């Protein structure tokens, strides 16, 4: 077993492995810590040091992270936005969403994931749903809602996409459709702790 990180300097909220590196969201220090996989040596932080509080690239309260095509996506719970950075130098790229109760807005953004078409999935613990955005940040759709029964959400926290275990779930899909990938969403409360959804297409 192995542990790493100084508890006085690191309050981790999410972690992922990419390109032989470990990316750890550190809500205490408003940044993403990057470590070498295996040795756990600290390499650098994201975003870069040029961004100060008040700048678009500053992370107020980073909770969840995802990586796709060398872009780091960060769920900034304190700014009510998803922020995008270049993974190699930490340069700020863009934001997705804003604070509010309308479409394409957030009140409690947490878990995020990016599919193979660069569609961004964002869990909102306040709305108790998941919103899907295209690569340009345009809202495509949302699903979920406050818990009333199976398929709904109760304080959701994390979303994960899976392309590898489709054979276990294809039987639950209408014969007119083919299952492209699975969408797992965790709930912190309620009887259904893990919801399983499917992204489908016509055969």
Helix content estimate:
under 10%
Uncertain spans? none
Radius of gyration: 17 Å
Apparent shape:
globular
Q: Largest sheet at a glance?
A: 4 strands, antiparallel
What percent strand? over 45%
Which H/E pattern describes the elements? EEEEEEEEEEEEEEEEE
State mean pLDDT (0 to 100 scale): 95
Identify the strand order in the major beta sheet: 1-2-3-4
In angstroms, what separates the terminal alpha carbons? 46 Å
Explain this structure to me?
The chain is 0% helix and 50% strand. The protein contains no helices and 17 strands. The protein has strands spanning 12-18, 21-26, 31-36, 42-46, 62-68, 71-76, 81-86, 92-96, 98-99, 105-106, 109-114, 120-124, 129-133, 139-144, 156-162, 177-187, 194-202. Strand 5 (62-68) and strand 6 form a beta hairpin. It is globular, with a radius of gyration of 17 Å. The relative contact order is 0.10. The model has no long low-confidence stretch (mean pLDDT 95).
Quick summary:
The protein is mainly β and 203 residues long. 0% of the residues lie in helices and 50% in strands.
Strand and helix map with partners:
Blueprint: E1 12-18, E2 21-26, E3 31-36, E4 42-46, E5 62-68, E6 71-76, E7 81-86, E8 92-96, E9 98-99, E10 105-106, E11 109-114, E12 120-124, E13 129-133, E14 139-144, E15 156-162, E16 177-187, E17 194-202
Question: What key attributes describe this structure?
Answer:
about 200 residues; mainly beta; 4-stranded antiparallel β-sheet; 17 strands; about 0% helix; globular
